[in-house]
């Protein structure tokens, strides 16, 4: 039996499509963790990245934080958190996921603001736009494609890594991998892995659509 | 009127970009700030819309100190055009142009209608309205920049090297269009350039700045060319001052002759009659009166059509009588191997020809007339140049 048979058997087995351990529920949990981690990371990283990019200050400190953040092993951090603070809600899994998502968002939002062409900004000020209008009507719309690409990298990494939640007895699609592994049920392991890979791909699609909707065709990177 | 009263700008690092500059910029005319790179042109311009605040001195707009006015309202009353246009890349051409009207609270429909009018005014096809800036050529973007600055009909227009990033041919066209628009609208324009030819072509008055932000001379272009204040200005004006000054002399008074002109359907006898006027060359025109080329009378013995058009001697580039300057007429005579200039009307039909000798006479006469006039104007310009108290 090859991998594709495992995957198709897993996905076509109707018992996998309902109940507490069914795909819809596990997917829902998985997306829930991912979305929460991404939202927290964005709430932290976006304002810092945008403000320091806008003012041109703090770029070095930001690079250090981002590099350090990237060097953190998510799984190691999870185990550490689990032993340190125990299983208080989602906290032990949220910390590594947020730490994973912050660097790409931070770095790209900083870069996005840094690389905005100064000419339109100068023109906007020169024609009498106030600072808030310049920020929201000129700088952000122009920086948006790069900001979104940072969010997309973060989303892909978080969705792929959220599987580790299962190792500290939380849910999500990681359950199939962990449980299947212990039960030597390779069909479940392969199926869970495939679902996670598909979800990561789906993120690419979601962000593609998002870009179509919110980014002006004048600054879309595909131009 | 914009009165610049002994302004100095010292940047934080100690650079003195503008040093005790005083200028009176008259209404409804183009004032050009020109000078070598780094002489403080941009700094001066940006002090007028308060993008840069002077270290000392003040600027009055219609008698009011601009420092007392709310900065954004002041800027909205002045169009601002920069090099490379600085268009908003995420907005369509129409939306770019409608920016200031929208900021002033016009409703969308009115602002867009106004923007379409302006596209037409600056020579942009309406099919470009829905495009984004990256889909336009540099020259088109620059036109959008001008349209955007004019959108709310501000009395003042500040332009910082608006045409320096486009190629020379497009630049000429854009300069011509600016002059045309100015003729229609009569704005108070302050125009920055480092190109002295552009300054001479566009300026009603020219302020030449020298490095260190000091005013070297403030005069009308004709006076600048005829009476440069010092060696720096003379050097900056470059070679050919005398010939370039001829651009301010109209060709209207130039004496033209129609004697050596024959139409392509002229017979041998008619050619012989024309040749009797002892002209060394005859100008052959087509039956519509458009010039074809010069020929020696003896080569036209079989009638004017005996020499194929392709073998006629080139007539160079004709000048439009009355509209073009004596410089164009002279250029035309010098370019033609026969030494004669061809004058045409606005439809391209020949109205007469003039020899280098005739043009030389006209130049001497014009110089004599201008001499008296220019010294009057030079003293008037000097009076407008305020001395710091
Ligand atoms: N923000 C600034 N801080 C410090 N010095 C400045 C600043 N802006 C301009 N300068 C200096 O002031 C001087 C005048 O600059 P400005 O931009 O006004 O020159 P310019 O005549 O417009 O030159 P160019 O033709 O090259 O555009 C230059 O020496 C320049 O280096
Ligand atoms: Mg400049």
Would you give an account of this structure?
Chain B: This is ABC-type quaternary amine transporter. Chain B: One of its GO terms (molecular function) is ATP hydrolysis activity. Chain B: Its EC number is 7.6.2.9. Chain B: It holds the Pfam family ABC_tran. Chain B: Residues 2-237 form the ABC transporter domain. The complex is a heterodimer of chains A (223) and B (389). Chain A is mainly α and 223 residues long. In chain A, 76% of the residues lie in helices and 0% in strands. Chain A is built from nine helices and no strands. Chain A has helices spanning 3-12, 23-55, 59-71, 74-85, 91-114, 118-126, 131-161, 174-182, 186-214. The longest helix of chain A has 33 residues, at 23-55. Chain A is elongated. The model of chain A has no long low-confidence stretch (mean pLDDT 89). Chain B is globular. Chain B has 389 residues and is of the alpha/beta class. Chain B starts with a strand and ends in a 5-residue tail after the last helix. Chain B has helices at 41-48, 71-76, 93-97, 99-103, 108-121, 138-150, 168-185, 196-202, 221-226, 231-237, 241-245, 268-275, 326-335, 356-384; strands at 2-10, 16-25, 30-34, 56-61, 64-65, 78-81, 156-160, 188-193, 205-210, 214-219, 261-263, 282-285, 291-295, 319-320, 340-344, 350-355. The longest helix of chain B has 29 residues, at 356-384. The A-B interface holds A 117, 119-120, 122-130, 133, 138, 141-142, 215-219, 223 and B 46, 49, 51, 71-76, 79-80, 82-92, 99-100, 103, 132-134, 145, 148-149, 158.
């Amino acid at each position: 039996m090859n991998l594709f048979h495992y995957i198709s058997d897993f996905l076509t087995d109707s018992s996998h499509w309902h109940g507490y351990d069914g795909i819809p529920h596990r997917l829902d949990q998985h997306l829930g963790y991912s979305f929460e981690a991404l939202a927290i990371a964005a709430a932290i990283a976006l304002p810092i990245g945008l403000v320091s990019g806008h003012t041109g200050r703090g770029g070095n400190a930001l690079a250090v934080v981002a590099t350090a953040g990237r060097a953190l092993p998510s799984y190691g951090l999870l185990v550490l958190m689990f032993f340190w603070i125990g299983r208080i809600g989602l906290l032990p899994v949220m910390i590594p996921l947020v730490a994973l998502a912050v660097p790409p968002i931070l770095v790209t939002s900083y870069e996005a603001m840094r690389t905005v062409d100064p000419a339109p900004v100068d023109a906007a000020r020169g024609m009498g736009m106030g600072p808030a209008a310049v920020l929201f009507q000129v700088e952000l719309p122009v920086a948006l494609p790069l900001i979104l690409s940072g969010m997309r990298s973060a989303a892909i990494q978080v969705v792929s890594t959220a599987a580790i939640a299962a190792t500290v007895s939380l849910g999500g699609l990681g359950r199939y991998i962990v449980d299947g592994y212990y039960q030597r049920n390779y069909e479940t392991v392969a199926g869970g892995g495939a679902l996670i890979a598909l979800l990561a791909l789906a993120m690419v699609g979601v962000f593609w659509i998002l870009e179509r909707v919110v980014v002006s065709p004048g600054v879309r990177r595909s131009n | 009127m914009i009165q610049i009263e002994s302004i100095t700008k010292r940047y934080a690092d100690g650079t003195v970009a503008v040093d005790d500059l005083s200028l009176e910029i008259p209404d409804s005319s183009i004032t050009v700030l020109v000078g070598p790179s780094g002489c403080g042109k941009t700094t001066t311009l940006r002090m007028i819309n308060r993008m840069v605040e002077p270290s000392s001195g003040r600027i009055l707009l219609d008698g009011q100190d601009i420092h007392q006015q709310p900065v954004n309202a002041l800027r909205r009353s002045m169009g601002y055009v920069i090099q490379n246009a600085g268009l908003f890349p995420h907005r369509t051409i129409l939306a770019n142009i409608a920016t200031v009207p929208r900021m002033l609270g016009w409703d969308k429909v009115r602002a867009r209608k106004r923007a379409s009018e302006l596209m037409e005014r600056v020579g942009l096809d309406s099919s470009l309205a829905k495009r984004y800036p990256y889909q336009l050529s540099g020259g088109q973007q620059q036109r959008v920049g001008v349209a955007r600055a004019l959108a709310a009909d501000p009395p003042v227009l500040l332009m910082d090297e608006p045409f320096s990033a486009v190629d020379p041919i497009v630049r000429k066209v854009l300069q011509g269009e600016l002059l045309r628009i100015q003729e229609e609208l009569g704005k108070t324009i302050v125009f920055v350039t480092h190109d002295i030819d552009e300054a001479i072509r566009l300026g009603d008055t020219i302020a030449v700045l020298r490095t260190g932000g000091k005013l070297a001379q403030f005069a009308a272009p004709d006076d600048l060319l005829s009476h440069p204040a010092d060696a720096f200005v003379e050097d900056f004006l470059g070679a050919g001052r005398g010939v370039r000054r001829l651009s301010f002399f109209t060709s209207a008074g130039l004496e033209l002759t129609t004697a050596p002109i024959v139409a392509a359907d002229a017979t041998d006898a008619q050619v012989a009659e024309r040749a009797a006027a002892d002209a060394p060359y005859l100008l052959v025109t087509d039956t519509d009166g458009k010039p074809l080329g010069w020929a020696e009378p003896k080569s036209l013995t079989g009638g004017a059509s005996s020499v194929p058009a392709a073998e006629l001697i080139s007539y160079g580039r004709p000048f439009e009588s009355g509209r073009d300057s004596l410089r164009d007429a002279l250029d035309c005579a010098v370019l033609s191997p026969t030494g004669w200039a061809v004058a045409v009307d606005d439809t391209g039909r020949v109205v007469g020809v003039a020899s280098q000798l005739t043009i030389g006479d006209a130049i001497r006469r014009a110089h004599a007339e201008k001499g008296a006039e220019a010294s009057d104007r030079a003293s008037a310009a000097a009076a407008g140049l305020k001395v710091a108290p």
